[in-house]
Amino acid sequence: MVQPRFVRPTPSSPSSGAGEPNSSNLYAANCGPAVGLSHDAIAAAFCAFGEVNGVYPADESGVRVIVSFADPFSAKSALEALSGRPCPDLGGRTLHIRYSLLQLPSQVNECVPVSLSSSDLNIPGLFLLPDFVNAEEEKQLLAAVDTQPWIGLAKRRVQHYGYEFCYGTRNVDTKNHLGELPPFVSPVLERISLFPNLDYDPASLKLDQLTVNEYPSGVGLSPHIDTHSAFEDCIFSLSLAGPCIMEFRRYSASTWKVASTTTDEEEKPDTSTCIKKALYLPPRSMLLLSGEARYAWNHYIPHHKIDKVKDKVIRRSPRRVSFTLRKVRNHPCRCEFPQYCDSQQQT
Length: 347
Ligand SMILES: O=C(O)CCC(=O)C(=O)O
Ligand SMILES: [Fe+2]
Fold this sequence. Notes:
Blueprint: E1 5-7, E2 25-29, H1 39-46, E3 52-57, E4 64-69, H2 72-82, E5 86-87, E6 93-94, E7 96-103, H3 105-108, E8 114-115, H4 118-121, E9 126-129, H5 135-146, E10 151-152, E11 157-161, E12 163-166, E13 171-177, H6 186-192, E14 209-216, E15 221-224, E16 235-240, E17 244-251, H7 259-262, E18 274-281, E19 286-289, H8 291-295, E20 298-301, E21 306-309, E22 312-315, E23 319-326
The structure holds 2-oxoglutaric acid and fe (ii) ion.
2-oxoglutaric acid is lined by residues 211, 213, 221, 226, 237, 299, 322, 324.
């Protein structure tokens, strides 16, 4: 079953007379299966305020959920009664609750024209190389990862090599080196060193972290900028098995916030001040995000089963596997985009 999608309300979201979002859905942080509270237990605690239609994971952390009520009045009562106070029915945990909005499919499918070439997007530092690996190499890479154990997230599966990527903090633990990258990626690493336009700090190119993502059809990735303090400038992503659309968004007034990148509950800064561009990533292509593309633009894979590319309708294949290769950063980031940079954020 496809899980409904929820987004954070913005100032322009429809609201009730009191200026609150007129929503039946609540986002609740600090409860969930990862702290021993099942969705059923959470539903039981919230149903004291009205009929609960469902409890869903808000993201992959296991400690943030969406509670969906049958009506907005129940949601309002629950929010007022439970937010910021220890909840005896939920092990005495203090929940942090706010409204959440159901995102309708028509809103998901906003039409951003999709380009086939990275140069059409005119985003400095963004490069797409089609046919980076051939069909035989693709087969071998897929076979290699399929012999390794997968970690199941809410909607997709992942593997981490070199350093584990932690979805709670969107960072890596630099003290926990898992070992060298596996031999099956060596040919890819070799070819990366021949990548055109690689006029970068060589430190940025000693790639030592690999995350393999496996997306079933219709599953995407929330908009995010890879945490500046976690990884160096160059981020490479190899697409295998199936295509996808990657959308790039530049928000005019954005600040770095961990919450905005950890959650499947897609945070929506005011999209009226956001430039959107989209690129088709064919299987076997390599994408490089660097400079402005890496530091200032959110990248996003829409959660669609069908994408429109030029005049063609393209159905996502049952599986897309990506290899994201990065270099873990061991010093603060000093990029030219402090407004998006956790290392340079004034708190
Ligand atoms: O699947 C991809 O190509 C992108 C993955 C990604 O953005 C990430 O792991 O941060
Ligand atoms: Fe990313």
